[in-house]
Design brief:
This protein has 11 helices and 18 strands. By secondary structure, it is an alpha/beta fold. The relative contact order is 0.18.
């Protein structure tokens, strides 16, 4: 037996849950397939820029975000070697960005999608996707029982992780290891001395990272490090990989040492990867990508959650208009072209900026050559935040919804 829907969403993170919620509210029958049980922790910097507040309000979670998230982030910084610089973040009219743990954010969004009428298949994995005439057939497998069922829909939205391998034709396969492959690490700390309103970029040999105050009095430290540097660190370390990476960061960033001098680890260290930054905006027929599968910026700019939420908004408003106009199959091509143009206009500059900053931050010689300029003109950090999308408005505020 098969179940039929207007749309199947693969992936229950911020992009997938947002897409499902908006479509369900518009009267679509939606299935969302998520392979992990929630709540779950995630390798992520957890920061959401203030440009997301209008969309969070539209989704009905803005008040909860303001109540539970960490303190307002008003300053951007740079910790590199012995240097600690900071400058103002660009102000957005509706407030300041804040950080919120993915275990809480993702669970809340998925719950709201379910309350709006989305049928949530969790924990189930999408293991096959085939086109069948005027619809798609997505085979899903229960993580608990191994049962396999087909789900049918005219539209499929891909919101699965970019580094996850699998049997879907859209998922990345295994590839040969490369020295420049990036691996992500993340941990929470308590009793940190990091200034509450500061979000510094961490520049260290072979990698980059960031710190920010998140919910419940915790500080999140997330980073990416090259495979070759990780191998070098692990070869001389007597501890686990995550601990070795954080020791490497402390050794090369005085600001991190000062912030974490009296701090204690809260929970274990998470790892993921290799991550694959870049644009993957491939649209065919009724299959549309959002979030990291559409395109992934280097995490150095802390725009991953923003891009996931906002790309779902850009896509669903076009899909809703398509259905209201009669849902002609041939019209999906126009939806895809319009979405791709809007996606590139809003997000491609962030990806390009992130790539430049990431490659600069990983090379100590390059960082050292620019530090004198940044010390003399700290406003360049503010300009860099503008450049990476911290003030790019995608969704406009509304009075009621």
């Amino acid at each position: 037996m098969s179940a039929s829907y207007d749309a199947v969403v693969i992936g229950g993170g911020p992009g997938g849950a947002t897409a499902a919620l908006l479509l369900a509210r518009a009267g679509w029958s939606v299935a969302l397939v998520e392979r992990k049980a929630f709540p779950r922790r995630k390798v992520c910097g957890e920061y959401l820029s203030a440009t997301n507040l209008p969309l969070l309000d539209r989704l009905g979670v803005g008040d909860r975000f303001r109540e539970r998230a960490g303190p307002e982030v008003r300053r951007v910084g740079l910790f590199a070697g012995t240097k600690m610089l900071d400058a103002s973040l660009p102000r957005v009219a509706n407030g300041w960005g804040r950080a919120w743990g993915r275990d809480q954010l993702d669970t809340l969004l998925l719950d709201r999608a379910a309350a709006a009428g989305t049928e949530v298949w969790q924990p189930w994995s999408a293991i096959g996707l085939n086109e069948r005439g005027d619809h798609y057939e997505c085979h899903v497998e229960s993580q608990d029982t191994g049962q396999v069922l087909p789900l049918e829909a005219a539209v499929v939205i891909l919101a699965h992780g970019s580094w996850e391998t699998g049997t879907l034709p859209t998922q990345a396969g295994q590839r040969m290891p490369r020295p420049g492959d990036l691996f992500g690490f993340k941990a929470h700390f308590r009793d940190s001395r990091l200034a509450p309103e500061l979000m510094p970029l961490l520049a260290f040999p072979g990698g980059y990272g960031g710190m920010v105050h998140t919910d419940d009095g915790r500080v999140s430290l997330s980073c990416c490090i090259r495979r070759d540097e990780l191998s070098r660190i692990r070869a001389k370390a007597t501890c686990a990989a995550g601990a070795a990476v954080f020791d490497h960061i402390r050794e090369n960033c005085r600001g991190v040492r000062a912030a974490l001098d009296a701090a204690r680890l809260d929970g274990g260290c998470l790892a993921a990867g290799p991550i694959r930054p870049g644009i993957r905006l491939r649209i065919r027929g009724g299959v549309f990508p959002v979030g990291n599968w559409a395109g992934e910026a280097h995490p150095v700019v802390a725009e991953g959650i923003s891009m996931a939420l906002q790309s779902a908004w850009l896509l669903t408003r076009r899909l809703i208009a398509w259905k209201e106009a009669g849902a002609e199959r041939t019209g999906l091509e126009a939806v895809g072209r319009s979405y791709a143009r809007a996606w590139r206009r809003n997000f491609a500059p962030r990806l390009h900026a992130a790539s430049v900053i990431a490659h600069w931050a990983m090379h100590p010689t390059a960082v050292a050559s620019v530090l004198p300029v940044l010390r003399g003109f700290p406003g360049l950090l503010t300009w860099g935040a503008h450049w990476t999308g911290k003030a790019t408005r995608v969704v406009t505020p509304v009075r009621s919804f």
